[in-house]
From TrEMBL:
Entries under Gene3D superfamilies matching the protein: WRKY domain
Compositional bias annotation for Polar residues: 85-96, 163-174
Annotated Basic and acidic residues bias: 150-160
The protein's name: WRKY domain-containing protein
Nucleus recorded as keyword: yes
DNA sequence: CGGTTTTGACCGGCGC
DNA sequence: GCGCCGGTCAAAACCG
């Protein structure tokens, strides 16, 4: 008996040591992960500085080629005199369009402008207004006040610690909050804005939900109008208080397509499986948000969008300005339904996400500052890793479309590389991340990461049709 | 028993 | 003001 007790004691001790070791390893891992992210961000910032200088020079050079000297001087002064204030920047026709209240008007006013000179000036202004350049360094913390003002209601309801405790976190009110930050992080205001912008991933999948490396808890399910398939609502449960939510719904026209829409910033380190995708979708969302920042009503400025339009017949990345929330859509289906594509063209601006040098040119109107800001902000908007172990046909499902009527070699190259990356890589998350990174020009993502593990999502599948506009029960036929 | 899912109720925005 | 609709809440049920 005594011997057994001693043995037990020894094992307990050993167990304790192992626990400590595990905790230590876990801590080291988290620290290392954060370190890697910060290093990547630093590198990206350095690159941004460099790119910004280059593109500013290019802009001015281009500008000089197309204007007489008087205009050059005038515009140059405009460029130099533009302050960070969004209020002063948003004048002229942008302001006019901001006054229009309906989304229809926004869409209508978002027609491409032919005046090249005007575009250049506006690009420059946009650059300044959206990135609030400091010594040529774009940074993300601009316009916080207006962001929180725009979304103060939402902030009060969803983001404040008080409402957090009585809101969705109230389910846990019996449980001591482990990870809840004692005070709101500085990024809360942009986070409020981030909660408005969304990243939507369309992918073919037989599985009811893509496995993206994060843990989700379902908090609702509803029938959405115009779609016989229910929409499921999930929130991230990887940390208490993480505001990230996602919606999962099957496409009405093609039910093999799963539409996953992410919204919000993770407030915790992401697992490797979600890391790459998060950074890339964040980049996409930040691009979108960069536009919305300068807009008074929180929607993307239609004129700014208009300048981003290229005559693409179809593409894999779209930005919707007419949707209730500005949304970046990453279409990873191999062939979109023609009907759907038509609708997409009617309701969405399709924005080719090319590489930086093309993205920053006046042809599409996005300034480099915007691009750079979006390229790698470090904010993790979404966990849109789309690893789907159930995907039967990963390579074909992920083939990217880039039918360009407008020649843009860099995008074609990107898409080609992305497609190759996906078809060559059995690991869908890595391939998808690489694909999106390639297309939006995010070079920071490791395209060779074939070792990403799929952390299983705990959320259950969404169920199938039922025609009441209320929560429904599981449909066995899914 | 703790975490997740289900699902009716509720809320706010929006159009009429 | 009213109804519709999307989104969320929260109690109960469920599950491992």
């Amino acid at each position: 008996m005594v011997r057994l007790q001693v043995e037990l004691q020894n094992m307990n001790d050993e167990n304790q040591k192992l626990k400590e070791m595990l905790a230590q390893v876990s801590n080291n891992y988290s620290a290392l992960q954060m370190h890697v992210v910060s290093i990547m961000q630093q590198q990206q910032q350095l690159q941004q500085q460099q790119n910004h200088r280059t593109d500013t020079a290019q802009l001015i050079q281009h500008h000089q080629m197309n204007n007489n000297k008087d205009q050059e001087v005038k515009h140059e002064r405009q460029f130099l005199d533009l302050g960070p204030s969004t209020a002063t920047v948003e004048t002229t026709d942008d302001q006019v369009s901001n006054n229009s209240s309906s989304s229809e008007e926004r869409t209508r006013s978002a027609t491409p402008q032919n005046n090249n000179n005007n575009n250049i000036v506006q690009d420059v202004k946009y650059n300044n207004s959206t990135t609030t350049l400091k010594d040529g360094i774009p940074f993300d913390n601009q316009d916080h006040s207006s962001a929180s003002y725009r979304d103060c209601k939402r902030v009060n309801r969803d983001e404040s610690p008080e409402s957090e405790s009585q809101g969705w976190a109230s389910n846990n009110n019996k449980v001591p909050k482990l990870n809840h930050p004692p005070s709101k992080p500085i990024e809360q205001s942009p986070d409020a804005t981030m909660r408005k912008a969304r990243v939507s991933v369309r992918a073919r999948s037989e599985a009811p939900m893509i496995t993206d490396g994060c843990q989700w808890r379902k908090y609702g399910q509803k029938m959405a109008k115009g779609n016989p398939c229910p929409r499921a609502y999930y929130r991230c449960t990887m940390a208490v208080g993480c505001p990230v939510r996602k919606q999962v719904q099957r496409c009405a026209e093609d039910r093999t397509i799963l539409i996953t829409t992410y919204e919000g910033n993770h407030i915790h380190p992401l697992p490797p499986a979600a890391m790459a995708m998060a950074s890339t979708t964040t980049a996409a969302a930040n691009m979108l948000l960069s536009g919305s920042m300068s807009s008074a009503d929180g929607l993307m400025n239609p004129n700014l969008l208009a300048r981003a339009i290229l005559p693409c017949s179809s593409n894999m990345a779209t930005i919707s300005a007419s949707a209730p929330f500005p949304t970046v859509t990453l279409d990873l289906t191999n062939n979109s339904n023609p009907l759907q594509m038509l609708r997409s063209q009617q309701t969405q601006f399709q924005v080719p996400l090319g590489q930086s040098q093309n993205f920053a040119t006046p042809h599409n109107g996005f300034g480099q500052g915007l691009y750079n800001q979006s390229k790698f902000s470090g904010l993790q908007l979404s966990s849109a890793g789309a690893q789907d172990n159930h995907m039967q046909n990963v390579s074909s499902a992920a083939q990217l479309q880039a039918h360009q009527t407008h020649p843009q070699p860099s995008l074609a190259d990107s898409v080609s590389a992305a497609t190759a990356a996906i078809t060559a890589d059995p690991n869908f998350t890595a391939a998808l991340a690489a694909a999106i990174s390639s297309i939006i020009g995010n070079n920071g993502t490791n395209q060779n990461n074939n070792n990403i593990n799929a952390a299983g999502s705990t959320a259950n599948p969404i169920s199938n049709p039922n025609n009441n506009n209320k929560m429904i029960s599981n449909f066995p036929g899914n």
